[in-house]
Amino acid sequence: MNTSIVGRQFELTESIKSYCDSAFEALSKYNLDIISAKAIISADERNGKKGFDVEFAINLAKKDTIVIRQKDKDLYAAIDLALDRASKVLRRHHDKLVTHKNSDELKESRIIVDEVSIEGADEIVPTELELYKPMEVEEALTKLKDSGAQFYVFNDMDAKMRVLYKRNDGKFGLY
User: Which residues belong to any copy of the Sigma 54 modulation/S30EA ribosomal protein C-terminal domain (predicted)?
Assistant: First the structure.
């Protein structure tokens, strides 16, 4: 990453340059292709009040340039605020790249994971629910009692999906 630090109406010291360099190094944790980063620091005096303007221009590969401007009375505080805003933008961009990858790549990785079998692990066997046949509540109650399960999902005669479950007091509930 190419970095440049420019001072306008302001003389840069070595400590300010090293502080900006460390700020730019903190942005490299997002593993984005940062081509160059430029910091323009200028002194600003308006209405008798002194302040500093910090502008970060970050060039990313295959992305537009990100420009962040920050003003503050304290130079180091302005750099920190600009760094926070830049890291927020880069984190969002990184999250988009990570979570919105090509769906083909995700499908391929899922297929590979599905083919791997671990010895000694519990096996999950998919079963089809018999939801397509409507049944009476009494019929579902007998199936629940016979199965020994905690709940039973079924479609009633009005084509509504219902859940019959065992309560703690020994009675049955119906959703």
Answer: 121-174
The answer to whether 161 and 137 have CB atoms below 8 angstroms apart is no
> Model confidence over 121-162: pLDDT tens digits?
567 666 655 556 788 888 888 988 888 888 888 888 887 888
Q: Are residues 84 and 12 in the same domain?
A: yes
Total domains in the chain come to: 2
> Is 24 in the same domain as 95?
yes
CA dist 147 and 144 (Å) reads 5
pTM of the model: 0.55
Tell me the two tokens of residue 86.
């830049």
- What is the DSSP code string of 39-60? EEEEEEEETTEEEEEEEEEEEE
